[in-house]
Each structure stands twice: as structure tokens, then as C-alpha cells.
Amino acid sequence: MIISASVFIVVAFLLCVAAVLAVFGITHVAMSDPAAIEHDGLHRGLAAPTWSLPDSSGRIVRSPPPSKPFQLIVFTDHSLKSFPSVIDGLKVLARETADLEIIVLLRGDNNAAVGVLGLLGLGDFPVVTGKPSLYGRYNVRVSPFVIFIDSAARVRASSLVNYDWQIMKLWRLANIPLQPDPASGARRFPRRRQTARTA
Amino acid sequence: MNTIALCAKAALAVMLIVAGGAKLADRAGFAAVVRLFIPVRALAPAYSYIALAIALAEVILGCASLSFPDVTWVNLIVFIAGCAFIVVSVTGLALHSGKSCNCFGTLSRRKFDVPSVFRSTIISAFAVLAMVGVSPSSVRLGVLTQALLLTAGAMLVAVSFTAAKALAVIPEGQPRVGAR
User: Fold this and answer.
1) Rounded distance, CA A12 to CA A8, Å?
2) Domain tally for chain B?
3) SS3 B73
């Protein structure tokens, strides 16, 4: 009698553990799928995280931007060198727009990234060392990812990017005023199939 | 024989908990399946509540079967549920073949097909095994053990609910684990 009860308890607990592991496994595999990665980031109109962190030169950078109407947060690291078109797009955007602050947000300490970004001609952008948890608050897993936010800390556009035209299109989308009701806001523009690089 | 029956009973309980927890996370999706089987326009506002009731019933039945294995009428209800699964899968195969059954919410994209009837039959067979192969007096548990198993069941509900909620962002048309 006691043996039967013990068998049931052991089997039940083992099955519970197995079920938890299976559910985690299914979720992990499904969330690693490109279709799931396409839904990373924050939807247009949602509130973006607010923070203030020192950049690589010690200057405090704030999000949302205190002095400019828009801020472009580039989630990347030294691997950005593999995306020359994105680099060109960022340079063009910085050159042609005065009301946009561009910052680079790293996932963590990465001394190499600051040097590499300087070599790529992006040395003028503040490079802020973030944390994986901050990336998590932006729902960003894969880089290079960009999020445009306005001075009210609302997301204007967000997407994984591989080409300069994507950045320009996102910038045009960011300039479209938000609808009064965030729930009826426009969806992010459909992306082409991208060869994303895991950060 | 007794050990196999105990394993079958525990497996059924865990399956019901995971299925119920996942359905709770995707009520709209499961309500759409309910609508397939109850195409009555007057009941349209109730689909969501019917879906919620079914999902909650699965969770409660699974937790009861896991924590109170000596209660015989729970085995009978699990068996009746297993028979209902067969009826649903056969009807689904006949009338809605190829459509998603949402049996595990967004955790799976299983469809109404021949294997789904086969799976339902296995579930019913397990329920019969649990009903006739487990002596109630042999699995009488203490209060502490019951509480622990109930906690494990609640944890399982939370895990399956969270996972199904996370997977709900992936569009229906995209490939998913378990999809054919």
C-alpha cells in the first residue's frame, strides 16, 4: 500500500518536472524561430523604459531625450561592422537630421565595441553600457536593432535592421504623429526576411 | 500492472493540467474551436466563457487527479473526459479536418486528423487503466503530500500558461513545434 503511494508520488513529481522542462523546451525552440524574432522590440505607441546612464566618456545620457524631440537607440556591439549598410544609414541620418539624438546601447561591458565603433566612423555617438535586463525591458534579443522614441518616452518605430533603407523608412514612420489611442496605432512595417545575427 | 496504472493516472493528470493552463492563456483561440462545434449564433457571446469553463475544468480535474488519487469518482470523470476527447476528435476529423484543435493552446498546432483520434483513444485507454488498475486504498496520501502535489500542479499551470502566452505572439500561419 505504502509502496503504491510512493510510486505514485515519485512518478507524479517526475512527470511534473518533465512537463515543465518540455514546455520550456518548446517555448525556447519556438521563440528562437525567425517568425518570433520578428516580433521583438516594442510596438509603436508603447511606453519606452526611462533611464539615465553614463556613456563611454562619462557624460550622462538620458532616455527619453531631454533636449531633442527624438532619440534613436541602436542596440548593437562591435558586430555592427558586419552591417556596412546600417553604418551608412546611421551616418546619413546623423548628418541630415538635427532633431534626433542617436545613441548606441551595449548589452554589457564591451571595451572592444567602443573602439570598433570609433573605427567605423560612429565615434560621435554616445556609447552607453547597458545590462541584459535593460535589453529585456526593450524586448530586444538580436542585434542590430533600432528603436526610435520621442521626448514623451513613446516608441515611434522599432525594428531589426540590416540595411540603410530600413533605417530611413523607420525614421519616416517615427515622424508620423501617434494616434490618440495607442491600441489603434500603426503596426511596425513588415520586414523582409533578414539574416539576423544573434548578439 | 499497478505501477503502470499509477503512471497512466499521473500522466493523464499532468496532461490535463498542461492542456488547461495553455488553453487559459489563449481563450480567444480556444473559443474559436468551441464555435466550430457549437455553431449557434445565439451562443456567440458565450463562446469565450465556455472555453474558459472547459480550460478551468481541465485544470481542476488534473489537479484533483494528481493530489487526491484515492478519490474514485475523479477517475470516472477523467474517463468521461477521455471519451469526450474521442467524440471531439472524431467529429473534428469528419467536419473540420485540418483545422487546429488548440488542445494545448498555442503550445502546439495539432490539427483534427487521424492521429488526433488515435491520441484521444490512448488517453481514454489510460483513463480506463487508472480507473480499474488503481486501488483507492493503495494511493491514500497524507495532507502534506497532497499539498506538495497540488503545489506542483499549480506550478505546472503557471508554466504552461506563461509559455502559451509568450508563444501567442507568433502568428498562426508560422511553423510551430508539433505542427505538421
Assistant:
1) 6
2) 1
3) helix
CA distance B40 to chain A (A): 31
Query: How close B148 gets to chain A, by Cα (Å)?
Result: 9
Q: Which of B18, B155, B174 sits opposite A33 (nearest CB)?
A: B174
Put simply, the answer to whether B7 touches A1 (Cβ < 8 Å) is: no
Distance CA B122, CA A107 (A): 48
Instruction: Tell the CATH superfamily of the A42-198 domain.
Output: Glutaredoxin (3.40.30.10)
pLDDT tens profile B92-136: 999 888 888 888 988 887 888 899 999 999 999 999 988 887 777
Domain carrying residue B50? 2-167
Residue B38 within a domain: yes
Sequence ranges of the domains in chain A: 1-31, 42-198
Q: How many CB atoms lie within 10 A of CB B148?
A: 16
Cross-chain Cβ contact A30/B177 below 8 Å = yes
pTM, to two decimals: 0.70
